[in-house]
Amino acid sequence: MLSKSLNVDILNWKSVEYGSINYVSEAIQKTNWVEFCQLASRLNNGLSCVLLDKITNGLNNLVKLIQFEDGTRWIARIRLRTSAADLAKMRSEIQVMHLIKERSHLLIPKVFAYNTDKNNPVGVPFILMEFLPGNTGMDSFGGWDAHHGRIPLVYRQTFHRSVAKSHVLQMTALRFPKIGTIIKGKDGYDIGPFEDIGGPFDTAAAFFEAWAEHARFPFREERIREMMRGGPTDEVLKAINEFPSQIKAMAGLLSDHDGNNGPFPLCHADFLHSNIIDWEGACTLPLELITFPSFLRASPAPFDSPENFDKDGQPVDAEEKQRWQDRKDYVQMVQSAEGGDNVLSTCLGNEKHVALAYCMTAFKGGKLGFYNRVIDELGRADQ
To answer: Is the peptide bond before 293 cis (omega within 30 degrees of 0)?
Structure first.
């Protein structure tokens, strides 16, 4: 069994604090590791276990290895941030993991136990789950120091083709009648509200209207002016301030097609090669917001500074130009995997809608850009 025989020293184990608050050290101190190990033992036929010294973490979770007397290994996953919103995301992620496990063939860890209560016997919100040995795409091929997060060209086509097949058959193929988060009930799976904008939504238009009502750019004008360092500051400020109301005004036009009433595909909130099996924030979304994996994310030409593009509209930067080509290749890979259902390739082939998806994510993340120009392109497309 691979999870028994793999030398875990070859994997990328590291512990990093992100920001000024020591979430990792605090979580480690709060965790009752003895209780955690006893729980794991009870769930695995009474086999005794030990906690290995291997630990790693991301922004929201840390993981530690548990090894049983027969050599089997499980993962103890601890939630680092525990606000009400963070725990709601955790609960939703667990439901999505159950869904993916039941309705697709994606390789995803089996969840053995979980508790989202901060006051549970383990001392912290946790998931106890299967250990899937191996490094992420981000950590493979020499890791960040070797390729800065880019899959080397020699492996890229194979990697992208594998992702495209999973994107089509195991993700976009999972569709629901409403837009929202995944909820598991007694009679199966249903769609629940978003933590920030409410719902669930029966139509794409209703979703866009709600998003626009609640959207807030994370930086104030003073900070934006500092970040701009000159340049067309007033245009960018105006674009940022007007973007939500423009989305609301265009909600009906954006969804004026058969897809307005669903069904709506399941989407990975951060479909990146460092966390493909991390389903936090996964939800169903309108077809207009179905987009590329995050490792193929590229700034739309209207959104970015014109000086970054040549007279043919192609990126000046060689790496960005390659990413544009990789996106075209990815659409073809998707088409090859689709069969009779071309929903995903149609969505990815609509450059204006892909640009809209980019802008809505960028807005919430505080990225400066010409949102107004993307809206202008959308307006021309829908006239």
So the answer is: no
Cα 357 to Cα 374: distance, rounded to the nearest angstrom? 10
Burial class (CB in 10 A: 0-12, 13-18, 19+), 262: buried
CA pseudo-torsion sign 79, 82, 86, 88: positive
**Residue 334: which H helix or E strand, with range?**
helix 318-338
Which residue reads 């027969």 in tokens? 70
Task: Rounding to the nearest 10 degrees, give the CA dihedral for residues 160, 164, 170, 175.
Answer: 140
For 37-89, the pLDDT digits (tens) are 999 999 999 999 999 988 888 889 999 999 999 999 999 999 999 999 899 88
**Cross-strand partners of 111:** 129
Angle at 81 between CA 76 and CA 82, to 5 degrees: 95
Element at 188 (helix H, strand E) = strand 188-192
Query: Rounded CA gap, 214 and 82, in Å?
Result: 22
